[in-house]
Design goal:
This protein has 353 residues and is α/β, with parallel strands linked by helices. The chain is built from 13 helices and 15 strands. Pfam families: Epimerase (PF01370).
């Protein structure tokens, strides 16, 4: 039997992974205890998504386990052993701001939880491909020291800089910078996943995501930029822009496009690899530009205000360079552009609010 195991399976990338791999594996095991509702409140609960997966996919089996518990995770791995061919580890505490409230919780979920998953894979399913969703926040605030230029609706990098054409590559240092508490816990997990590949020879990959988005995102104020922006555009709830004149730039990758990257890696895996994963020059926007697109799609004028203080360690301009991944897997490319993604989010969120 071929089994794919997905942590954070009711979240954005986790649920997309379940849907994608349910058609390619005999069984998909999901691990998710809805900690997102603890982090961000009832409005961010992923229970609706978990129920949908259980109803739609007969070969999906859900476990409400905590990735921090060796006992709970080892019990699942021991049951299926070598039949587990793929582990997609997406479960995380994903917010800068929330992490500062409870550093121990943040670190144990992001770092310790990842170690528990790695060790269980090594012990029970050593031939499995292990994929980890990291973050561009492992680079800390180093991108903020690039030569940036202020334009009418966005910050942009100087056109003479090597990063102008394709964005930031994997060679940027993850050292000597302010990461946020969240970024630091993800650095620990990121490096450990690399180490299990390099030291133990496991087939591991780190995907350093830009702004991951899609129609199944349970957006909240502290996490899920585009999903929360669209939710406010639909409901009329007030939105607050934090710093940088609302011109901060993010590249945005649709959850399906990211999971398709996972699929390409699974078919031809490497050991201890690192890839930047985002919308690149294909799909990106500033906060101001995102608001304008949401207003266009919804037909609503948004209610928003500006707060001068930016979030600590936040990026002013970040666009991912995917050249390395495209060179390794030349058949992969993006499927969903920014406006298509936001339109899907409008359709989905409108049904839930």
């Amino acid at each position: 039997m071929n089994i794919a195991l997905v942590t954070g399976s009711a979240g954005l990338i986790g649920s997309e992974s379940v849907a994608f791999f349910a058609e390619k594996f005999d069984l998909v095991i999901g691990i998710d205890n809805n900690l997102r509702s603890y982090f961000f409140g009832a409005e961010a609960s992923t229970d609706w998504n978990r129920k949908g997966l259980e109803e739609k996919f007969s070969n999906y089996k859900h476990y409400k386990a905590d990735i921090r518990s060796e006992e709970e995770i080892n019990k699942i791995f021991a049951e299926y052993g070598a039949d587990i061919k793929l582990v997609v580890h997406t479960a995380a505490q994903p917010s800068h701001d929330w992490a500062a409230r409870e550093p121990f919780t943040d670190f144990t979920v992001n770092a310790n939880g990842t170690l528990v998953m790695l060790e269980a894979t090594r012990k029970y399913s050593p031939e499995a491909v292990f994929i980890f969703t990291s973050t561009n926040k492992v680079y800390g605030d180093t991108p903020n020291y690039l030569p940036l230029v202020e334009l009418e609706t966005r910050w942009e990098i100087d056109q003479n800089h090597p990063y102008f054409t394709n964005g930031i590559d994997e060679l940027m240092s993850i050292d000597h910078s302010k990461h946020s508490i969240f970024g630091a816990s993800k650095v620990a997990a990121d490096v450990m996943v690399q180490e299990y590949g390099r030291y133990f020879g496991m087939k591991t990959a780190v995907f350093r995501g830009g702004c991951l988005t899609g129609p199944n995102h349970s957006g909240a104020q502290l996490h899920g930029f585009l999903a929360y922006l669209m939710k406010c555009a639909i409901t009329g709830n007030h939105y607050t822009i934090f710093g940088y004149k609302g011109k901060q730039v993010r590249d945005n990758i649709h959850s399906w496009d990211l999971v398709n990257m996972f699929w390409h890696f699974y078919q031809n895996p490497r050991a201890g690899e690192v890839y930047n994963a985002g919308g690149g020059r294909f799909s990106n926007c500033s906060m101001q530009e995102g608001i304008a697109i949401c207003e266009e799609i919804t037909g609503n004028k948004m209610s928003y205000s500006y707060a001068e203080d930016n979030r600590s360690g936040d990026h002013i301009w970040y666009i991912s360079d995917l050249t390395k991944f495209k060179n390794h897997y030349p058949e992969w490319t993006w499927k969903y552009d920014l406006k298509t993604t936001l339109t899907q989010m409008y359709d989905n969120i409108s049904k839930r609010v």
